[in-house]
UniProtKB/TrEMBL annotation:
Keywords: Isomerase. It holds the Pfam family MDMPI_N. InterPro entries: DinB/YfiT-like, Maleyloyr_isom, MDMPI_metal-binding. One of its GO terms (cellular component) is plasma membrane. One of its GO terms (molecular function) is metal ion binding. This is Maleylpyruvate isomerase family mycothiol-dependent enzyme.
Length: 255
C-alpha cells in the first residue's frame, strides 16, 4: 500500500515539475529522445496518456480504449504554455484521485498479466517521470528524481523488460541468450545491485551483488536514464565486457 501511495503522489509531482519546465520554454524545441516530436507534442502526449489511464481505471475497462489522441500529434502546433501546463497538472490530479479511490488491488484490463490499478499507478509515475526527462534534456534544464522513485524505476524496467512476450514481438532479443552473459547494475549513491542473467533459455534478473561478465556503475538516476536510452552508456562506468553491454543495449526493446 505504501508504494501505491508513493506512485499516486509521484504522478502529480512529476507532472507538476514537467509543467514547470514549460514556463518560458520554446515549445517548438525538438526532443532528441522522441524523434519527430517537439516539446509541445511531448507534453500533449503525456497529458493525453494521463487521461487515457484515468479512463481505464475509472471505467474498469475490459479492453484498451483508443489511444489515437496520444499517438497522433500532427495537429499540435502553437500551444499556449500556461494552458498546456494547467492541463498536465489537471490530468495528473484526475488520474491520481481516480487511482486513490480505486485502491491498489482493483482489477481491469491491463497490458501485462495480473496487473490492475496498482500497475497503472506505478507505470504512470514512471511514464511521467521519464517523459519529463525527455523535456528536461531537450530544454537543457536540471533533472533529478527522488532516489526511491529512481530505484523503483530500475526495478520496474527489469520486470517489464524481462517478460517472456518480448521474444514474440521482438524475436531478435533471443540473440541475447548465451553462456556467460551476465550484466550487473550497481548504483553508487543508493548502493543497490541487480543482476541480468541471459545464460538460460529466458531473460532473467535478480537483486543482489554477484560476479558478472560486465557491470554498469553510477548514480541511480543516471543508470535509469541509460536503461531507457535517454543518456548514452558512457554516462556511467562500465566494468568488464563492454562489448557485451553494447550488444545488450542494441537489443533492448523496453525503452
Amino acid at each position: 500500500m505504501r508504494e501505491f501511495v508513493w506512485h499516486c503522489n509521484e504522478i502529480e509531482a512529476q507532472a507538476d515539475l514537467f509543467a514547470d519546465h514549460l514556463d518560458g520554454a520554446d515549445l517548438t524545441t525538438a526532443v532528441p529522445s522522441c524523434p519527430g516530436w517537439t516539446v509541445a507534442q511531448l507534453a500533449c502526449h503525456v497529458e493525453a496518456g494521463l487521461r487515457w489511464a484515468r479512463e481505464v481505471v475509472e471505467t474498469r475497462a475490459e479492453s484498451p480504449p483508443s489511444d489515437t489522441e496520444l499517438r497522433d500529434l500532427a495537429g499540435v502546433d502553437d500551444e499556449d504554455a500556461a494552458e498546456l501546463a494547467a492541463a498536465l497538472r489537471g490530468s495528473a490530479t484526475g488520474l491520481a484521485r481516480t487511482l486513490r479511490e480505486a485502491g491498489p488491488a482493483e482489477q481491469m484490463w491491463c497490458p501485462v498479466p495480473g496487473g490492475g490499478s496498482g500497475f497503472f499507478a506505478r507505470r504512470f509515475a514512471h511514464e511521467t517521470a521519464m517523459h519529463r526527462a525527455d523535456a528536461a534534456l531537450a530544454l537543457d534544464v536540471d533533472y533529478t528524481l527522488p532516489n526511491f522513485l529512481a530505484v523503483d524505476g530500475v526495478q520496474e524496467w527489469l520486470e517489464l523488460g524481462c517478460m517472456p512476450f518480448h521474444f514474440e514481438v521482438h524475436p531478435w532479443m533471443r540473440e541475447l541468450l548465451g553462456p556467460g552473459r551476465t550484466i550487473g547494475l550497481h548504483t553508487t549513491d543508493t548502493n543497490d545491485d541487480w543482476l541480468l542473467d541471459f545464460t538460460g533459455d529466458a531473460l532473467a534478473w535478480r537483486r543482489g551483488p554477484e560476479p558478472t561478465a560486465a557491470e554498469l556503475r553510477g548514480p541511480v538516476t543516471d543508470v535509469l536514464l541509460v536503461l531507457y536510452r535517454r543518456k548514452p552508456v558512457s554516462t556511467v562506468q562500465i566494468r568488464g565486457d563492454a562489448d557485451l553491454v553494447d550488444f545488450w543495449m542494441e537489443r533492448v526493446a523496453f525503452a
